[in-house]
Design a protein that fits this description.
Two copies of one chain form a homodimer. Chain A has 150 residues and is an alpha+beta fold. Chain A has five helices and six strands, in the order H-H-H-H-E-E-E-E-E-E-H. The first copy, chain A, has helices at 12-18, 25-36, 43-51, 59-71, 137-149; strands at 75-78, 86-89, 95-99, 105-108, 119-120, 123-135. The termini of chain A are far apart. The interface between A and B is medium-sized, with 35 and 34 residues. The structure holds a DNA duplex (25 and 25 nucleotides).
DNA sequence: TTCTCTGCAAACGCTTTGCACGGAT
DNA sequence: ATCCGTGCAAAGCGTTTGCAGAGAA
């Protein structure tokens, strides 16, 4: 998928099939959620969101589906928080920003050659993960507002 | 601690005191282990290593000690593997390399300005974490040897 | 029928919490 | 006596596994 390209919800079925994944109802809904939300959801977040529409949904299915997606290179797991897995729809290489205040994870598009290196000091590189931590724009602004009020 | 500077084991007590941490026997031993080993150990690794010398040692103490050290900015937790915490003695900013084969974590010293940015697209940056994943030098060489043999 | 997907329940493993003992001041 | 470090035991919580029923081919 090239930059700027969008995938219509109707194309989800074709996307799964092109990756060799049978497009079951649950899988389509989980993929749809990950693609529409850019929030790098946890299993629990996905579960809570989809549970309303699919009351029989099980977390096991979400775990199964996401590890299948990961194996088929449709999503990738983001290791930012140490206590839970977060998932990211596979777009162009990018970094992440974790807000320590609101726990939101933002995509950060960098122009760094680090993201594209094949070797580093003799080790063969398959993946490059970059993430920043701090206070996000929104929380900074909110903090500013609170100061003015008090 | 500046680059190139080394800390003698005898100086551990002073290091803890300078950070406002009472230098108990367990704390000294845990700090010593983290500083001597550059292997980014998990709690279990530390426990197994120190258990021989301190049979009464409890994992709770290691958890307590490490979170205290982290609060006092003596170590920092490395979020690379999602199923366990790894700890890193706080040196100059550096990146990590995780070998997917042997699970070893290597320090990588980079000359990237990413490590020193204060802001990124409006978010205030406190920390920058960079890690690569792949197959390390050693495992690559071993794989080569195996090929020759077979 | 056969194979795969789904999902309940239990197991698992790392981490945290509650609490009491004991040493230091 | 008080404070704080230590460590056992239990709880907590995200994830994985075992297995059986449902559904597709």
């Amino acid at each position: 998928m090239k930059e700027g390209e969008t995938i219509s919800i109707g194309g989800l079925k074709e996307l799964l099939e092109s990756k060799g994944v049978k497009p079951s109802y649950q899988r389509l809904r989980i993929l749809e959620y990950i693609m529409k939300k850019n929030t790098h959801p946890s299993v629990d977040t996905i579960y809570k969101a989809l549970y309303k529409k699919i009351p029989t949904l099980s977390k096991t299915t979400i775990y199964n589906t996401l590890s299948l997606f990961e194996k088929k290179r449709i999503v990738r797991s983001v290791t930012i928080l140490d206590n839970e897995l977060r998932y990211d729809f596979l777009k162009d290489p990018h970094a992440h920003f974790l807000c320590l205040e609101c726990k939101e994870v933002y995509d950060i598009y960098l122009d760094s050659d680090l993201l594209y290196r094949d070797f580093i000091v003799g080790h063969r590189v398959n993946e490059c993960h970059i993430h920043f931590r701090g206070i996000c724009k929104n929380c900074l602004e909110n903090a500013g507002r609170l100061e003015k009020i008090s």
